[in-house]
## 1
Amino acid sequence: MSSPLLLLAQVSNATAAAPGGLTSGVTRITNEFGIRAPLLLAQIVNFTVVAFLLWKFAFKPVMATIEERQKKIDAGLNYAEEMKAKLEAAQQASQAQIKEAQITGQKIVAEAQKAAKDLSERQQKEAVVKAGELIAKAREAIELEKKLMLAEARTEIARLVVSTTQKVLAKELSESDRVRFNESAARELTQVS
């Protein structure tokens, strides 16, 4: 068997050497390769129809589907990027809100501590004032009690002086003498205290 390229080269050499032999060279090649014009034409028509049908009903819809899917993929990627950006923005916003809440919480705690301290100081001052008032009232009560006791003591001493004087003098004192002795004893007691 000879190679088709060698055969083609021989035919082209033969046609170049023979005048008007170009048509006979083509006929010889077609005969040698088994090419028949009606069959070749039918195959070309069949190929063209099949290629058109494949293009129309297979490749074109497949390409459209591929393009549609590519658009969906691109849209999905764009959506994912948008969501990623929104997520980052939301995270930053939530972190900012958390920081703001922490600052607000710290302020509230500081205000509560200050209010508690102020209340404690105010209650201590009120307690000191109340204690001072109680001490003052107690002193007043003690002073009043002291005056009452001194008055009772004076009365008792005056009675004892009159009684003793009566016994010492062995006589009944008149009312004027009794008053005079009582007043004299009371003055002396007042001067002593």
## 2
Amino acid sequence: MRRAPGDNRKHAAANEMPTRNERWALILGASSGFGAATAVELSKRGWNVCGVHMDRRATIQNAHATRAACEERGAAALFFNVNAADEEKRAEVLDALAETARPGTVRLLLHSLAFGSMLPCVGDDAKSSLRRAQIEMTLDVMANSLVYWAQELVWRGLMAEGGRIFAMSSAGSTKAQAGYGAVSAAKAALEAYVRQLAVELAPRGITANTIRAGVTDTAALRKIPGWEDIKAKAGAQNPSKRLTTPQDVASAIALLAEPAAQWISGNVIGVDGGEDVAG
């Protein structure tokens, strides 16, 4: 049963520290890119994974492969092919997770949703420009949804002291580029939400941080107009002369999920090998 906002009832076991094999990670965007890599990396480290993704027939095998990789490493894996921005689907996922995970054992929420419109704010005409529905959809999926998932996890008691919230951003949150207006706005909003969550959830012992990944060759990158040039420039300017990989990001998140990182909160953390400062 879903809890109403402000309902602070706690299960007797909610404040017990979960054992290593009880920890759950809820990953939004779990079938590819950063989400998939993080799911597998955490499963190697003894985490169970609840993955939310939205795939059609052409890409569903990615989700199946990610889930199988987690299970091969001994993790329990619950995967749901649903729209993460849909309120009813969100409730269904969390209801199912609550049947498996005891209170307080969802120790990590990763928001890695990449679904937005890639059109100029003001193109040659209305047809070639962002429409209101596209702007609102992009903001809702890529930013607002983080708040709704965090709310439900806390209200249901699934996430408690020691919890970690991470959201994937990019340098595009502060830089303009062709066709990136709506996504850039969403990334900026996402970072603002993370700062707010860090402050509001600190008394509960929950941290929140934004991960600003370097340019990474993912399906999401290839939807950005001019992605080839973006990739080439990043590879040339990165001090290590290579792009960031999903595994680089997954490894960083796994480190930040450890108890010793409890005092790191409210930050935009660059995981890019120095790409941003070298640019």
## 3
Amino acid sequence: MKRARVIPVLLVRGSGLYKSVRFGQEKYVGDPINAIRVFNEKEVDELIILDVLATEERRGPRLDDVRDWASECFMPVCYGGGVTTLDEMERLFQAGVEKVALNAAAAENPELVREAARAFGSQSVIAAVDVRKGWFGGHHVVTHRGRKKLAESPAGYVMRLRDLGAGEILLQSVDRDGTGTGYDLELVRDIVHRVDVPVVAIGGAGEVRHLREALAAGASAVAAGSMFVFHGKHRAVLITYPDAETLASLTLAEGDGPRATD
């Protein structure tokens, strides 16, 4: 048995840290550096930092900010937001991040995924895939904070990104984002059986049992935002993380992991 990765996700707008609900209703929750320092004390596995305005503002990563955040982190960091070129990725790695998440750029320029995997290794290239349920059932991929819909199915899109060289899939349920109602397990089950790379489930975690459910559904790791920054029904800001005993119970069976059947 091996313990599963449990990954906090920080959403930044400018110099502030925010949390959203279904990619809207964003609430300010503090300073990213303060949150990072608390997570250092709690010895988190990894940290994902996403700049939610970069693509909308058509700009690249704020490298000075990324460098400041990464310099404070005692854990591996994945950064996403506004990355569109190999040069930007190289500068991010130089700034101290270990992985770069590609979302809109992967949809608009899929060859960037292939080029990045060749240049930096697949283990450093994460495909961030946002998925929303349709009005008449099924799922579809969206980009640009949910405003653009792709014609390709989630399964087909994820498999294509894997074939291009993405070493990990960050699978986000837009409908569950910030709700605390649990992950979209149907979506997780569908995707993890399609690809032989790790799938990180994100969107909907509100309690530890939700983490267990996603892992049981086949996710290689679980990520969450609200669960680790809010406390109680009034959503008071409090940076938290499961204790050592709880983390030890979140295990993957030996031999379990990425597998593809289609």
